[in-house]
From TrEMBL:
<comment type="pathway">
    <text>Cofactor biosynthesis; riboflavin biosynthesis.</text>
</comment>
<comment type="similarity">
    <text>Belongs to the HTP reductase family.</text>
</comment>
<keyword id="KW-0521">NADP</keyword>
<dbReference type="GO" id="GO:0008703">
    <property type="term" value="F:5-amino-6-(5-phosphoribosylamino)uracil reductase activity"/>
</dbReference>
<dbReference type="Pfam" id="PF01872">
    <property type="entry name" value="RibD_C"/>
</dbReference>
<dbReference type="InterPro" id="IPR002734">
    <property type="entry name" value="RibDG_C"/>
</dbReference>
<protein>
    <recommendedName>
        <fullName>2,5-diamino-6-ribosylamino-4(3H)-pyrimidinone 5'-phosphate reductase</fullName>
        <ecNumber>1.1.1.302</ecNumber>
    </recommendedName>
</protein>
<dbReference type="GO" id="GO:0009231">
    <property type="term" value="P:riboflavin biosynthetic process"/>
</dbReference>
<dbReference type="InterPro" id="IPR024072">
    <property type="entry name" value="DHFR-like_dom_sf"/>
</dbReference>
<dbReference type="InterPro" id="IPR050765">
    <property type="entry name" value="Riboflavin_Biosynth_HTPR"/>
</dbReference>
<comment type="function">
    <text>Catalyzes an early step in riboflavin biosynthesis, the NADPH-dependent reduction of the ribose side chain of 2,5-diamino-6-ribosylamino-4(3H)-pyrimidinone 5'-phosphate, yielding 2,5-diamino-6-ribitylamino-4(3H)-pyrimidinone 5'-phosphate.</text>
</comment>
<keyword id="KW-0560">Oxidoreductase</keyword>
<keyword id="KW-0686">Riboflavin biosynthesis</keyword>
<feature type="domain" description="Bacterial bifunctional deaminase-reductase C-terminal">
    <location>
        <begin position="2"/>
        <end position="182"/>
    </location>
</feature>
């Protein structure tokens, strides 16, 4: 289901934590037989350019011409030498100068830059800090698709679960896929 959803979006965004922890490809390769994948543009929020040179995001397009090299969104203080190396490997480094108090590019500016580059439908896949930041940003999230799996994942220190700033949701549908439950919900206007 995740790969089919990815195929319906122009771009898929994750944070650097997801890249470092999971080393994803961010493709739509696992589709049912007969469906041709339409791979989204991978986007990584990586303010200090910590993306490893051997990340699957950088290697995948060399092995499969249908995959796209990532856009890596950096802050103004990112290492220029690392930027050159990533660009030599084929990545596009997008520097966003408007940052928050912690040096992270402001999401409104990031989304605006992605739209300018043709990414009109953006899927934010994670991780927890990125998802929380998008949920806290007004009018940036239209629909949530939440997968609940019966496994524990992540580090011992996670993102706090309770946050009074987060929006309320209106569930639209639930469906079970094996052991996983998927919920689709719209955000409620407050």
């Amino acid at each position: 289901m995740t790969h089919r959803m990815r195929a319906t979006h122009d771009a898929i965004l994750v944070g650097i934590g997801t890249v470092l922890c999971d080393n994803p490809q961010l493709s739509a390769r696992l589709l049912p037989a007969g469906e041709t994948p339409c791979h989204p543009q991978p986007v990584v929020l990586d303010p200090m350019l910590r993306t490893p040179m051997d990340a699957r995001l950088l290697a995948g397009p060399k092995d499969n011409a249908d995959l796209k090299m990532p856009w890596i969104v950096a802050g103004p203080n990112a290492d220029s030498g690392k930027r050159r190396l990533l660009e030599e490997l084929g990545a596009t480094v997008i520097v966003v100068n408007d940052v928050d108090d912690e040096g992270r590019p402001r999401l409104g500016k990031v989304v605006g830059e992605l739209e300018r580059r043709g990414a009109k439908r953006l899927m934010v896949e994670g991780g927890a800090q990125v998802i929380r930041a998008f949920l806290r940003s007004e009018r940036m999230v239209h629909r949530l698709v939440i997968t609940i799996a019966p496994v524990y994942i992540g580090a011992a220190e996670g993102v706090p679960a309770v946050d009074t700033v987060l929006p309320h949701i209106r569930p639209l549908a639930y469906e079970q896929f094996g052991c996983d439950v998927v919920m689709v919900a719209d955000l409620q206007k407050q």
